Each structure stands twice: as C-alpha cells, then as structure tokens.
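Example 4.3 (complexes with small molecules)
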Amino acid sequence: MKPIIFILPGNERLGEKLLESTNAEKGNFLFRHFPDGETHIRVSSEVANKKIFLICTLDRPDDKIIPLYFLSKTLKSLDARSICLIAPYLAYMRQDKIFNPGEGITAGFFATLISGFVDSLVTFDPHLHRINSLSEIYSIPCKVFHASSLISSYISKNIENPLLIGPDSESEQWVSEIAKMAHAPFIILEKTRLGDNEVKVTIPQVEKYKNHTPVLVDDIISTAGTMIETVKHLKTAGMRVPVCIGVHAIFSGNSLEELSKSGVTKIITCNTISHNTNNIDVSELLVNHIK
Ligand code: R5P
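Answer. The structure with ribose-5-phosphate bound is encoded below.
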C-alpha cells in the first residue's frame, strides 16, 4: 500500500520534491481558519490503514503546532495506520536547561507534546548540546539525519582552499566531521552569549591560514549574531571574507540584511527550512527513508 504524504503550509517545495521522488500519494486536506481564528482541518484522502508522513518543519513553531496536532489527531481518528512527522528543523532544542530561575526546560515540554500525537519523528541535525540524544526527551522513535556529507561535498565542489570555522564548542561535532570529509583544516572558536541578540567570540591565531577561504559553519542561523561577530574578528585578523554556511535558515527579523551588511556575499543553507539562501538539498536522504 502506498504511503501518503501530507504537506503542511510552508513546506510545499520540499514536500513536492518528496512526492516526485517516491511512490507516495499526496494527502489531500483542507486547512483554513474559521472567522474567529480557530483552525479548521478536513481530510479528503482515504487514510484508513495507511502509513502517513506529515511534512512540517518547525521553525516559528508556536503557530504550527495546533494545525499539526489537529491534523494528526484527525488522521488517527480516520484509522491511519501510523503517523511519522518529518520536521527537518526541530524547534526548542536550544532551551535545554534552566538558564534563569523560574524557567522550565521547554525542550522537554515540547518533546512530550510531539511524542503525544505522532508515532515517530524524522529530523536533521537537532541542536544537541546538554541533551545527548533525542531519546532522552522524546518517547517515540526518532531518526536523525545529518547534513554534514552534503555540506562537505558542496564545499569540495565550490570553495577553493577552505578553512572551516566553528563558532563555538558545540559546533565542533559537525565542523570536525565536515572538515575531515572535505580534507580541509578547521578551527573552533570560543563564544559567550550575552543576550538574545548579543554574542562575544574569541578567535585563536589564524595567521597561517591567511591564504585560505574561511568557511563559517553553524547548525542554526537565527539572529545571525554569531556569524556577524565572527566575521568582524576574521576581518580584524586580516582574513579573507568568509563564506557562511548554516544547516537551518531561521533568519529572524532583518538578520539576513545585517549579515550581508557585515560584508559577507556568500550565504548558503540547507533546505530544512525554505529560504532564498537554500543551496544544499537534503531531500535525497528523506526519499530513501520514505521509500
Ligand atoms: C548555538 O549554540 C547554535 O549552535 C548557533 O550558534 C546559534 O543558535 C546561532 O544563533 P544566532 O544566529 O542567533 O547567533
């Protein structure tokens, strides 16, 4: 029996690619808001006993979660056999500890919420820092893909004499792996976050890499503060203008403009979140999974 892919609003580009490359059927459903702002979902595909994939990346998650929850519960009530959520970007993973008294570990709360209404989860490079594995907080099976091999082949094909740069200790896990695959050197910087929009980055001696093209690699670009601060330091150290590569293109507010203003001309991201900077396609990994 063919699986069915339901594409939530905002995920059309990736969703259509997956439909083209798998033998899955497209799930048909109406999604709209009632005049009072409440969500109305109506499924018109025959889903009984079928395997369902929901495509919904989870940047800006708060507005997406109710439609996702209602769709999943509706599909279950129509006797769908299993429901797998493909969320190429997984939200709330950075809220993995109590930073200030009175807060909660919302990474865990969010995981409990999602685990309560889908049967499994597929994602890319979740921000694992103080949480080592999704199974620590998710009670459903989780499959994690990494974009590192795709990023390293992009670098090998497009960037001459690269020096990979990770902005903080968390980034070492993927930067070192990408550097190894791209046969390139790498350095890891030290970052202190001073607030939502402010970070301080310290840079080690980079003189010997003056003839390299610096390639900043991070998992998330949100305010772009991390990248902008690093670019400043590279300039001061007399390095070339870096290429910036991020897996997840959140780009809050006018962060893309701010990053461009810092002098960067090449900003590349993966299509885990649909954005104009998407240049690395992760869909092939999902295709194999769905097949
Ligand atoms: C944090 O630890 C992450 O790996 C990224 O460095 C961070 O999320 C980037 O955020 P922003 O673009 O707001 O500096």
